[in-house]
């Protein structure tokens, strides 16, 4: 999906699909993705809420308590961002603004994923610090951050760059074949 939520001018419509149908399809896809992310954030949020009332939580260091509070707040922010598309849609429902809703929902989802990644990494740091101490906790925390960053951002970004290059080359080849170098297809 492009930065506009899949509704940009360089994203072709599917055969027989109108712009409104594309916006509807893209919004349905975003909602499906958000359902998966929301489950993860709910599990993490529940874990964090229960953690503070556990008897051994009192043994947590000052660093651990700060990490806990920051992680809990990140989890709350991720929840708000990942639920944002539904609230935005509800507020603008039936106003003919579906392409805008898709663009804004895409931004909510991207921001929510970034904050969720930080919350997950914060939870890993919190648990690893409690179990092993901070020096040992840093390695697995960095590893988790790296895995999420690669899976959620690096791989898709590289694929988009490759796809853009392939599409550009295909357009250039078609233009050369048709002798239409100055006309967009």
UniProtKB/TrEMBL annotation:
It comes from the Bacteria. InterPro entries: DUF6328. Keywords: Membrane, Transmembrane, Transmembrane helix. The chain crosses the membrane at residues 34-54, 66-88, 108-128, 134-155. Pfam families: DUF6328. This is Integral membrane protein. It comes from Actinopolymorpha rutila.
């Amino acid at each position: 999906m492009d930065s506009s939520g899949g509704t940009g001018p360089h994203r072709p419509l599917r055969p027989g699909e109108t712009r409104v149908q594309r916006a509807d399809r893209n919004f349905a896809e975003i909602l499906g993705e958000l359902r998966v992310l929301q489950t993860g954030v709910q599990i993490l949020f529940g874990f964090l809420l229960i953690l503070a009332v556990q008897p051994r939580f009192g043994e947590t260091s000052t660093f651990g308590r700060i990490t806990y509070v920051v992680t809990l707040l990140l989890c709350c922010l991720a929840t708000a961002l990942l639920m944002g598309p539904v609230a935005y849609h509800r507020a603008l429902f039936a106003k003919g603004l579906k392409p805008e809703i898709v663009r804004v929902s895409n931004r909510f989802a991207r921001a929510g994923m970034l904050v969720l990644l930080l919350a997950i990494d914060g939870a890993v740091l919190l648990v690893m610090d409690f179990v092993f101490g901070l020096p040992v906790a840093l390695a697995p925390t960095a590893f988790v951050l790296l895995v999420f960053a690669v899976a959620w951002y690096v791989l898709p970004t590289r694929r988009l760059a490759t796809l853009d290059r392939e599409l550009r080359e295909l357009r250039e080849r078609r233009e050369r074949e048709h002798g239409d170098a100055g006309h967009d297809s």
